[in-house]
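User: Sequence in, structure out. Go.
Assistant: Echoing your sequence, followed by the structure tokens.
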Amino acid sequence: MNMLVDGEWRIDAYESTNEEGEFDRSESSFRNWLDGSVAAAGEAPKSSEFAPESGRYHLYICRACPWAHRAAMTRQLRGLEEEISISLVQPERYDEGWEFSAEHPDPFHDYEYLREVYTDADPDYTGRVTVPVLWDKQEETIVNNESSEIMRMLDTAFDGNEFSLYPEDLRGEIDEIVDAIYEPINNGVYRAGFAGTQDAYEDAVDDLFDALDHWEDVLADQRYLAGDGERLTLADVAMFATLVRFDHVYHTHFKCNRRAIHEYPNLWGYTKDLYQTPGIEETVNMDHITRHYYVSHGDLNPTRIVAVGPDIDFTEPHSRDELPGGPPAALTE
């Protein structure tokens, strides 16, 4: 993979697998917080030089990326469109990394590549250039590029809609669920897709489908993941970002083909239920998703031919409304 090294762009400078052929995701580097935001259950609100002021912050995202999608969904569900601006990079990513275009320009600097935003924040930056990026327009720097932290910040630092995706009474459980689904599911599809050995691939696939089977059972009796299953939370946002991509790209492109999500009655109904939640559908761009995965990963798909299937419909009835709970009233009024 490509990365910045001391502020200079390097091709093939980052090994994505370890000696055992296991996919090894690097940690995010910018980890500042907005004043008053909550990092995790039991932690005091964070204090920094970044005040949660309306119009001050911007999200750089790619519609194809599940990590960026988590941040975009949180912004949309919490009604922060006027508080936090947003812009896109192109879905395809080649040797020069995430890039802007005439279709999706950089709104502030007229840069060609997202890496230039990173070197604006730190001219000597060493690390991968990833989305999402929470950018401070006032200080002209990156606040944070870790999606799980951006999700919590957007929910707890701003007022937005009159509900919370990270309510205080469920924070401990939400944190546990987000952690529980991260390695086997959110990151598990990548562990399978980028595995360098058969053993590493099979271990990742086993972990992935064991976890999917577990949550299939959980969702038989509850509408959502956390608490009594009656409230939409950040845990559902984190899960949905993987599930909505699964059948179109992970099943085939990442060889996660033991079973498709639409073959799981409860997980499929749950995915359709979330997709049809007001505010979610407009954050999903399946054209960008499929173009990114099949075109960007030339090592996995040298022809860069984009698969045309499967023929599934996220807007079909889901029957999940027969279970207790439902979307927050602020989204449906």
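User: And one key feature?
Assistant: The chain has a mean pLDDT of 95.
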